[in-house]
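Thread title: Can someone regenerate the structure for this chain?

I was given the following input by a collaborator and told the matching structure tokens would be attached. They weren't. Posting the sequence so someone can regenerate them.
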Amino acid sequence: MKQMFLLFSHKLTPAQKADAKATLYVDKFISLPDDLQKLWSNIPPQLDILEEYLTPLKEYLKLYANSGDYVLIQGDFGGCYEMVNFAKSIGLIPIHSTTTRDVIEKTVNGKVEKFSRFEHVIFRKY
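Best answer:
Regenerated them for you:
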């Protein structure tokens, strides 16, 4: 069985957990420690280069992840790019969740409001 490290800013849905267990044979889901979660969820948009900023996340994965483990990577595009390449370089399997989106329009107090509902479909390798 494998572990899935969570580099994203949400909680896994029950459907995502069930899919990871059934299709990827994941038996352990590992959220980032609070300090690393804050770092990942708040990548400064003014940084030109993210390599140094993301070093603590890389060190964490080197320390705790095993070759063949999954890393769910979603968030800042540049951060994702950097972490996907890093994960591959140390033998991890970077993935992301695909979704369908349903948009519902409602008129509330004479104004049209749009609501989007996202539903997990599959995990896809980068």
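The two ends are 21 Å apart (CA to CA).
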